[in-house]
Amino acid sequence: MSFVSAGVIENEWIPMPDGRKLAARLWLPCSERAAPAIFEYLPYRKRDGTAARDETTHRVFAEAGYACVRVDIAGTGDSEGQFDDEYSEQELSDGETVLGWIAAQPWCDGNVGMIGISWGGFNGLQLAYRRPPALKAVISMGSTVDRYSDDGHFMGGCLLSGNIDWATQLCAYLTRPADPQLRKDWREDWIRRLETVPFSAVDWMRHPTRDAFWKHGSVCEDWSRIEAPVLAITGWADPYVNAPPALAENLRVPCKAMIGPWEHKYPHLSLLDPADFHSEALRWFDRWLKGNQNGAEDLPAYRAYIQEHFNASKEYGPRVGRWVAEQSWPSLHVNDRVLFLASDGLKDNATIGTVAISSPAHIGRAGGFYCPGMRIDNDLTEDQAADDALSACFDTLPLIEPIELLGRPKLKFAFSVDRPVAQIVARLCDVSPEGVSQRITYRPLNLTHFASHESPEALVPGRTYKAEIELNECAHRVRTGHVLRLALSTSYWPLVWPAPENAVVTLHLKNCALHLPVRTVTEEIPPLNPGPPRDYPLLQAQQLRPATGTSKRHALEDGTIVLDTFDDFGETINPLHGMIVGSDVRMHCSIQPNDPASARYLSEWHFTFERDDWQVAIKTEQSMWCDTKHFYLHRKVRATEGLGEAEVFAREWSETVPRGLL
User: Fold this and answer.
1) In this structure, are 225 and 277 located in the same domain?
2) Is the pLDDT of residue 522 over 50?
3) Is residue 433 located within the same domain as residue 573?
4) For residue 383, what is the domain's CATH number?
5) So which residues are the signal peptide here (predicted)?
6) Which of 234, 237, 402, 455 is at 20 to 30 A from 263, Cα to Cα?
7) Are the C-beta atoms of 177 and 193 separated by less than 8 Å?
8) pLDDT for the residue numbered 1
9) Do the domain assignments include residue 130?
10) Are 293 and 393 in contact (CB under 8 A)?
């Protein structure tokens, strides 16, 4: 199948009111008439960072009659200006300007849709929240409606290691220079980027509660503000599973949710089970941007791939399950089933007594990375059996009939502690007769947040409290003969940064219950699941170094548990402009089982760029460690130029952040 649009404009400058210009790449359709437009807005560099992925989407959309516009956020890629923070007022205000500019172009009929995964999925919703006139529809993938509760910084009031991991990656991304082919001032601008790159991990950690910083950009603050129809998509291996059903439940405009067996990638590019994303996207945009009466508004409110046990392998490959659909959400087909925690498992009736939980700090080794799909290898969850053995587990008897879950399980519990700061992590697992434990869903809770994420309070040892954990969205069928397990631990490293001290959390069983969203349907409606991916174009880049990934877990002589990973993203030549780009990342996580304050993270990114006689390289390092009172962060950035690697910039930063109630 050939893909030929009327023209690709490699770079177009979009003027901002203050004189800055943002860089855009355009794909224009074969048409003499103005067309609706699709806008994607990212800091990941249209020239090289997302070029291969863009080829698989925007060229297809242009062939279908859309003008596609891919824009670099200010201070990133080839765009002018200075980057300040993710989803900042500058970013969103600039986005409104871009939407107005697109709608006013002669090739656009005034109707604009936004599309994106992750960052682009976030700001698509956030711009819809601001109601710019030109924005008529949104497709948001891998996104969140609540920046505090459901992003890579905090979860349940606990600090995620994803905060430092993502900050390290973002720092490396932001230090990359503009392309000299497009910016004569590239070197001056590059030095300015290096000098002003934000210390994002510190900036984010200084907001440990759900304050105004996180409420900005959280569309759940006022659902009614979104007036553009929204198609919300994600995958079960993606961390952003809570947004699609929340949007389907709360938006007042047409909204459809779909969650498939995918990682943090566009569905057609998934390494788990690729699907026809293009047809889903075009149906949505054809309805709301072109006005085609194709029934998009009549799609089921929620389409989900209900997974089953698949041996909990960390290897990429198809998942076992089936597609189902719910015409409305919440659904009358999903009802609350309550199981009570007892000293000998999960029961149908409440019991009395207590269970004490105190886990070694290294539990969580099978938990995978926060955001699978962003690395090359070893980022999926594995068999939870070893972690279960170090947890307090509450099991059902082997099921005599299957249970199908769709929604967010809730754990309601009463507890007391022996420390003023403690955490608990709940995992729901499907355990096969052979003992293989597959994680269905999970969620941690900083117990000082038992009443509020805005106003946490230190715990009084010995006092009894009540709390609730709403686990992450799931869709899972537990087969006959399998066991449903609730595993509770006081640590989950390296996914969750541990509490400062080993704590004993005592459950008071009389008030401990697991609420399951059990789905029972006598007659299914057609699931309208996406089929296999259609043909799509590929960027014919020349590979100079293949991508590889390795991971190693080991224990040191003093008992420290270490995880070392290396992801080499390879080196390629872009055939459109000849730029050669290479990158790799190393990560080190370590902890002593008997000392949660020994947790340590280190990451090192390396980027190289060259074309003809132009060569630059950037090396960024970030590390984070702690004691019981403070977090310590250190960062290095070094940039070189030319074959001789002459140093053009080198700087180190150190910051100390009080732990407070983390």
Assistant:
1) yes
2) yes
3) no
4) 2.60.120.260
5) none
6) 402
7) yes
8) 38
9) yes
10) no
The answer to whether position 652 is within a domain reads: yes
* Location of structure tokens 């999925």: 121
Is residue 327 assigned to a domain? no
Report how far apart, in Å, the C-alpha atoms of 344 and of each of 49, 347, 352, 564 are.
52, 9, 12, 38
Give the residue-averaged pLDDT of 245-259.
98
* C-alpha span between 59 and 55 (Å, rounded): 6
351 with 382, same domain?
yes
Q: What are phi and psi of 141, to 5 degrees?
A: -120, 145
Instruction: Identify the CA nearest to 6 among candidates 131, 140, 107, 145.
Output: 107
Give the residue numbers spanning the domain of 85: 7-157+208-299
Per-residue pLDDT tens for 100-115? 999 999 999 999 999 9
- Convert the pLDDT of each residue in 169-184 to its tens digit: 999 999 999 999 999 9
What's the one-letter identity of residue 646? A
353 and 283, same domain (yes or no): no
293 & 347 share domain? no
- CB of 364 within 8 A of CB of 494? yes
> Residue 370 carries which DSSP code?
S
Strand partners, 14: 22
pLDDT digits (tens, 9 = 90+) for 20-37: 999 999 999 998 899 999
What is the pLDDT confidence band of residue 2, given thresholds at 50, 70 and 90?
very low
Distance CA 618, CA 77 (A): 15
CA distance 323 to 131: 34
The β-bridge relationship of strands 230-235 and 255-260 is parallel
Whose CA is closest to 422, among 389, 393, 444, 454? Answer: 444
Q: DSSP string of 279-347?
A: HHHHHHHHHHTS---SSGGGS-SEEEEEE---TT-SS--PPPEEEEEESSSS-TTEEEEEEEEETTEEE
Q: What is the mean pLDDT of residues 335-341?
A: 98
The mean pLDDT value of the chain amounts to 96
Peptide bond into 494 cis (omega under 30): yes
Whether residue 568 sits in one domain with residue 464: no
Angle CA 33–35–41, to nearest 5: 150
Q: Which pLDDT score, from 0 to 100, does residue 223 have? A: 98
581 and 483 assigned to the same domain? no
Query: Do 302 and 290 form a contact (C-beta atoms < 8 A)?
Result: no
Neighbours of 199 (CB within 10 A): 16
- pTM of the complete model beyond 0.85: yes
Quote the CA–CA distance of 430 and 484 in Å, as a whole number.
Answer: 5
Residue 609 pairs in a beta bridge with 581, 616
Residue pair 116/123 in contact (Cβ under 8 Å)? The answer is: yes
**Cα 280 to chain centroid, rounded:** 21
Percent pLDDT > 70 in the chain is 99
Q: 586 lies in a domain? A: yes
pLDDT tens digits, 594-627: 999 999 999 999 999 999 999 999 999 999 999 9
For residue 468, which amino acid is it?
A: E
- Residues 554 and 561: their CA atoms lie apart, in Å, by 6
State the CATH number of the domain containing residue 127: 3.40.50.1820
